[in-house]
Amino acid sequence: MNTRRTFLKATGATVAATATYGAESKAAQTTYKGPHQMPVNVTLLSIKNTDGTETLGVKTADGVIDVRHAKKLLNLSAPESLEELLKEGNSAGLAKLIASVAAGQAKSALLDEQSIKHGRLFRNPSKIICIGLNYKRHAKEVGMAEPRVPILFNKYNNSLAAHNSVINLPPREIAYKFDYETELLVVIGKPARNVSEERALDYVAGYCTSNDFSARDLQLELPSVQWMIGKTLDGFAPIGPYFVSSDRVGDPNNLTLETRVNGELRQSSNTSDFIFNVQQMVSYISRFWTLEPGDIILTGTPQGVILGMPKDKQVWLKAGDEIVCSIEKLGDLRFTLA
User: Please, what CATH class does the domain formed by 128-337 belong to?
Assistant: First the structure.
């Protein structure tokens, strides 16, 4: 028997379903369907909004463009995150938005970078691939032979963290030998499978500063070597502050890297000391998996890590320490420990 209550329930369900369908249809209509293009001539960041979302920002001479705000003001189609930009390939839409703001439109979408809380540049890449022992002087300092092929391991999405983030260290009984590893991050921009070294850079969208933060006791002092366990705790892959497109970086195999702990210089090197350069790494990895847009590769760290110091000089990182990771043309990544 139908009652007023059942009628209202049925009506409410219908309205909800219609609203959901309408939202899904609108989303489908706004999904970019044009040619896939990698970003060019841009420096991008992620904005952590007050509603908890993490959306795209564009660093310009006039300030940071809040892409989500600007696209609403301009009624333009543009990606709202770096991963959306890389996967959908709507570089033209982003370029049109940037040009419109530069022409004086949507001025309220320009933010002072100092007022921004940074979000994660990457939240859900299909692959986070890491290269171990990839600098000649680093291999020498830890007393290991240079590898004959790239050493591959992985991190998981739980390890991804933003610029200016806080890494909450586990209890001492879990781990206490914490170490920094400033690394060039390679960002894939289009599908790559069995690519040659000569063509490998054609598949790279850009680069970031990153840190392969490590717990050396978990990595090296368990009953067997456990690189993955020692490098994948929560927040152990801070990345930022920027994604810089490949054309703005130029040669990735000649970039200066530095690490400072509480203001003290610890690492100072150059990617010219790579054992395997970026072309070799991308080509080698693509033999085993198809690299997809938005996949990221941490390319190894140079000499100067705590692990490479004499045992009596190894003072491991602790709560309260501030780490600053600098890579030429890519900016300074900062994070603290707690």
Answer: alpha beta
